[in-house]
Structure formats: structure tokens, C-alpha cells
Specification:
single chain, alpha/beta, Isopropylmalate Dehydrogenase, 12-stranded mixed beta sheet, 39% helix, globular
């Protein structure tokens, strides 16, 4: 059986990355749908297996994607040397090993040796280096795959929230958000809903930036000068986009359930309702890339490392979503 090869990066070795990987791949349903290939460290995997008491779980250690076996949890051992694991701590070596995993997986992805990428959480501070000077996966992948027009999207079943800005400080938003940028994100969102989520004629809601959508310019002019013009131009281009909606009432009244996608202006505006509604089940997806990349909606969770208390629902759903998107893109291409 020719199943999708799903590359999995191990993230920060001092966090819950290996725990959610172990728990997710213990589900036999995953193995029926894909061939998982972890880019990691044999000794780190064995360490976490022992600490978490996963004695009945077996990795198949391989040197290359071509050695991967069907219905096995394949792990490409990236380094034989001993690596110190300090559970719950941020260390330089953990950042270095996270970077090694990402670069190795992306190299195989670019060369079509794997079909999609699922990334375990990294620490955005300790991974910084001369060769990895990015605020997160989204920014790195945009550069690596030469795709400047991408968008971070949070997904949980029918709830899909996209972002005009990713990791931008609040005081910098005025200098970043423009009508052109909003229009660009609407276009990316619309195309992704069609290509990746098989939405026919998707319906998109755009959130306001200011309280009460600016209240007729009393509380800010961004709505009238940037957001509404972008919405109108997109609508004229046959995209079903509406707004701007004040985020509090939009989510509070359940209006969000009437749309295929919701575009937030900044990180916390979209993340807060998303995590309230779908914290454990949510998935991070990077729209606009030529490849498929998903990740869990949580971080390294150092406070849970080694305690066997971390939920793997988000990571498991990230694997399922990657497979779904691959299938949707394949079906669209065949049509």
C-alpha cells in the first residue's frame, strides 16, 4: 500500500514533543493512513520512552527515508552522539537539536522524499542561531520554500481562523497592517479554503481592529480607511468576504459558526477565542505554502515534561489534518 509519508520533527527535546509523538503514534488508526517518519534522536526517543513508561512502544531506527517501513514508527537518527536532556528547561542544545530536525525534514520535503510535515513545538528563544534567525516555523518555512505570501491558520473542525499579522507587537500594528496586506491575506485564505479544505465558494468574515469596529471613526479610522476598502475590493473580485465584525460580539453570539473562515487582525485577537473553543483539539496550519505543514496548537509545555500528563489530541489532529489536506489537494488536481 502506497501511503503518504508524513515527516515529523521532534521539537524541543526538553518539552512534551516526544510524549505527544509517542501517544499519537500508539493509535493504530494513524498507521493505517500514513507512514510516519520522525526526524529525531534515537537516544532522546529512548530516554522519553523510559521516563514515560512506554515499554511496549517500539521505534524503527533508520538512516534514510527509503528505509521507512509501513505500519512502523520510523525514526531517522540525526546524531549518534550523546545529548543531555534537561526536562522542563530551555537549553542551547535543545534549540540546536530542534533546528537540526527542522532542517533535515525540510530538505527531504523539498526533494519530495516525504509528502507533508508535522512539527512538534519548539522554544522560539533557544532555537535562535546564525542559521535560524526566525520568530517561528511559519516565518522560516515561508523563506525556505520561497513563499513570501503565507498565512498562519488555526483549525479545529469547521472553525478556521487566519491572521493578518503573526508575531507582531501591539505597538507595531499601525506600521504593519495595510489595506494591501489585508487584501493579500483574504486572497490566501480564500484559495486555501478551496484547495486545502474543499470549501465550495467559501464565506469569510473579517474582524475589526478597534473596539466596536471603530464606532463610525470615533474609536479609530482603520476600519474605514483600510479594512473596508480591502473587503470591498475582494468582494468585487468574486470573493464572499464580509465585515468588519467586532470580535467580542462576533464570537459571543456564535456568529462565527456561519462562516468557513475568520480573518483576525492580530495574534491574540484570534488566538484567545480559538483556544477557548478548541485548545486541546486545535491545529496550526501554514496556508500559502507549496507544501503541507501542520503542528499542534500548543507549545513545549515544559511544566508537563516527563510527567505523562500531556494531551496528544492536538498533535494527533495535526497528523490527520495533514493527510486530509493532501487528499483534498490531490482530488482538486485530478479534477
Amino acid at each position: 500500500m502506497n501511503l503518504y509519508k508524513i515527516g515529523i520533527t521532534h521539537g524541543d527535546i526538553n518539552g512534551i514533543g516526544y510524549e505527544v509523538i509517542l501517544k499519537s503514534l500508539s493509535d493504530s488508526k494513524i498507521m493505517e493512513l500514513c507512514t510516519p517518519i520522525i526526524y529525531g534522536l534515537a537516544k532522546a526517543a529512548s530516554f522519553h520512552k523510559k521516563v514515560l513508561n512506554f515499554n511496549d512502544f517500539a521505534f524503527q531506527f533508520i538512516k534514510d527515508v527509503t528505509q521507512a517501513s509501513f505500519k512502523k514508527a520510523n525514526l531517522i537518527n540525526l546524531q549518534d552522539a550523546e545529548v543531555k536532556i534537561d526536562l522542563s528547561e530551555s537549553t542551547p542544545i535543545a534549540g540546536k537539536m530542534a533546528e537540526l530536525s527542522i532542517l533535515s525534514a525540510c530538505k527531504d520535503l523539498k526533494n519530495n522524499r516525504i509528502d507533508a510535515l508535522v512539527t512538534a513545538p519548539i522554544n522560539k528563544f533557544n532555537i535562535q542561531s546564525e542559521s535560524f534567525n526566525f520568530i517561528g516555523h511559519t516565518e522560516f518555512l515561508s523563506t525556505y520554500f520561497n513563499s513570501p505570501k503565507t498565512m498562519m491558520m488555526m483549525v479545529a473542525e469547521q472553525l478556521r481562523i487566519g491572521f493578518v499579522t503573526n508575531h507582531v507587537a501591539i505597538h507595531d500594528l499601525d506600521n504593519v497592517i495595510t489595506a494591501n496586506l489585508i487584501l493579500e491575506k483574504i486572497n490566501i485564505f480564500n484559495q486555501s479554503l478551496i484547495n486545502d479544505f474543499a470549501c465550495t465558494n467559501p464565506k469569510i468574515a473579517v474582524l475589526s481592529l478597534n473596539p466596536h469596529a471603530g464606532d463610525n471613526n470615533l474609536l479609530g479610522r482603520e476600519e474605514s480607511e483600510m479594512i473596508k476598502p480591502a473587503i470591498c475590493e475582494a468582494f468585487d473580485n468574486k470573493i464572499n468576504v464580509f465585515g468588519p465584525f467586532p470580535s467580542d460580539s462576533f464570537f459571543g453570539t456564535g456568529e462565527y459558526t456561519q462562516f468557513d473562515g475568520i480573518l483576525a487582525m492580530y495574534h491574540d485577537q484570534g488566538m484567545l477565542p480559538f483556544k477557548m473553543l478548541a485548545m486541546e483539539a486545535g491545529v496550526n496550519f501554514t496556508a500559502g505554502l507549496p507544501i503541507v505543514r501542520t503542528s499542534p496548537a500548543h507549545g513545549t509545555a515544559y511544566q508537563l515534561a516527563g510527567k505523562n500528563k500531556a494531551s496528544h489530541s492536538s498533535f494527533r489532529n495535526a497528523i490527520y489534518l495533514a493527510i486530509d489536506i493532501l487528499n483534498n489537494r490531490k482530488a482538486l488536481k485530478e479534477l
